Amino acid sequence: MRRSADRARALNHLRSLPPLRGATDMELARVDRLTYEADVSPGSVVTKEGESSRGFFLIVTGRALVTVAGLERDVLERGMFFGETALLDGAPEPATVTALTPMRLRVANRKEFTQLSQVRPLARAMLEMLAAQQRRSYVDGVARLTEQPTRISRSR
After folding, report:
1. pLDDT tens for residues 48-87?
2. How far is the C-alpha of 131 from the C-alpha of 20, rounded, in Å?
3. 97 falls within a domain
4. Which CATH number do you get for residue 119?
């Protein structure tokens, strides 16, 4: 069992992460209880595209590179998260995430993720991120369409 000072320090640290700002002490305690800390070395692959989900990951410190089909897509930093897509839809991981720097993560497996997604500030952050990804995919799709002229054949 954690001492009171250690628990308070852990909750304050969680509260400082953007997706958990505004969380109540009870919600933060739930996040603390449902996740565990993991340290990751630079170059370590945390999730691999096409493989089964290893869990939900919230970045406490460090940076990670996201690649899809070998192409660099994004860099994730403190307060960002990944792994939720495969947990939500049950499909394989859509991307590979590789640590660029030493990282400290808060990790939840599938069972804990289901409970974790009920923490209001974190659930809202997940929805906002999924909406941003959807919007980005629409914009990328439109950009691809406008890059190549399309011929429309009219049958008579």
Report:
1. 999 999 999 999 999 999 999 999 999 999 999 999 989 8
2. 18
3. yes
4. 2.60.120.10
Position 107 in a domain? yes
121: left (phi over 0), alpha (psi -120 to 50) or beta: alpha
Q: How far apart are CA 125 and CA 20, in angstroms?
A: 8
* pTM to 2 decimal places: 0.80
| In a domain? residue 151 | no
Between 122 and 131, the higher pLDDT residue? 122
Among 92, 105, 125, residue whose Cα is nearest residue 46:
105
Asked whether the beta carbons of 93 and 52 are under 8 A apart, the reply is yes
Q: At what angle do helices 25-34 and 4-15 cross, to 10 degrees?
A: 100
Distance CA 109, CA 129 (A): 20
pLDDT in tens, 1-20: 557 778 888 888 899 998 98
- Strand pairing category for 81-82 and 56-61: antiparallel
36-43: average pLDDT: 97
Match 């990282």 to its residue by tokens.
Answer: 103
- Give the structural domain span for 129: 4-146
Beta bridge partner(s), residue 58: 81, 106
Indicate whether 26 belongs to any domain: yes
